[in-house]
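To whoever is on call:

I kicked off a structure prediction for a single chain this morning and the downstream step that reads the tokens threw a length-mismatch warning. I double-checked the sequence; it's 449 residues and nothing unusual in it as far as I can see. Pasting both halves so you can look.
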Amino acid sequence: MIDQAQGLAHEATEMLQLLIRNRCVNDGTPESGHEERSAALLQTYLEGSDLDLQTWEPAPGRKSLVARLPGRDRSAPSLTLLGHTDVVPASPAAWRHDPFGGELINGEVWGRGAIDMLDLTATMAVGMRRLARSGFRPSGNLTYVAVADEEGMSRFGARWLTDHVPDAVGSDYVITESGGFPMATPDGQTRLPVVVAEKGVYWCVLTVRGTPGHGSQPFRTDNALVKAAEVVRRIDEFHPPAQMHDAWRRFVEGMGFPPELSGPLLDPDRVLEFCEQLPMIGLARLAQASTHTTLAPTMMSAGTKINVIPDLVKLQVDIRTLPGWDVTDVRAMLTEAIGDLADHVDIDLPTHDQASSSPTDTPLWEALQRVTDRHYPGARNVPFLTAGATDARFHRALGSVAYGFGLHSRSISFENYAVMFHGLDERVDVDSLALSTELWIELARDFLG
């Protein structure tokens, strides 16, 4: 067993390093991503393993791969392991090591995507290959999908695939990114979060209007950039009322926090002030995001020349909504936040998806608990809501039960895990790669054996 675990760890480590080095950087533009590099890598790796392989490329370079082990029984439940191959940009100067070097340093693989989510994409591929080569034949279909464009709202990836070829990628059950990092309860027990719900995502463009003029005479001008700065300030300071939804309540209760912690975390009137004072920044960010619809100004473009008062500013705001919110609610919130400047601002919501969730009273939930108990005896899986969007939402729209999960060692604390997403010095330890690879193999045999 030790030799097998070491072999899986080595194989998964090499695959992750190659995926990182492929630099499939998605900046949101159609011409970015270049996921064909990793689709080709994975296709070559999986060929000759008795897997049915297909690829789709809805735009040049934006290629996704599907690998399937056909099931023996058409009436048996089917399972999809869903990974993505693209990553967000990284600024090398701010990192301690090359974000696209894929270096193995002190037992950790460093690089953009190491935990979001190239680690799981790599381990899923290794697990599928091992299962196929072992002669395993599942009761229901077992599918591995490595999609493009998850970091760009999935219009060339999961969104396109579920719209155009749902039979090729759809399953009764889906597992994708996040979750599975061990968290200690106050009494020393272990809890493993399973992402069962995610917030809605509304990418907003605000156009702030003014009047052009000469930069040498700024007094009493209608400067759109100055107005936009005030809009940013108001948005940053605006906090919609807290809401306590089921996934957050069940997570807090499942963690067994003491009353002095669980009380304010579950009180809509106290949670924001409590988060502002909480010394554990990771938990503070999680709690605030899990109980509030959030607004984050992230990009701005303005002006035509240094000596021209700008008359137009484009401000981009990343909005993540709690369950129950729709476009009408988001527009009303923005209008309230902007206040008396609303008449000078046009609101556009070109991309949006509502919050989604899946139940926990399912055979897959039970199978995940059985498998994780082998690696963390006595640990309990707890429902979790993620503030970030994943491709699970498109599969839920097809009727699938979709969870976010992996299996991580104790080497990565929750604090570090949370801040590395889209952050600096992203890395994952080799032990976690081995655990996730074993998870996919054992889960397939347990759930589809």
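Update from on-call: the warning came from a stale cache, not from the record. Cleared it. Sanity check on the structure: The chain has two domains: 2-185+355-448, 200-353.
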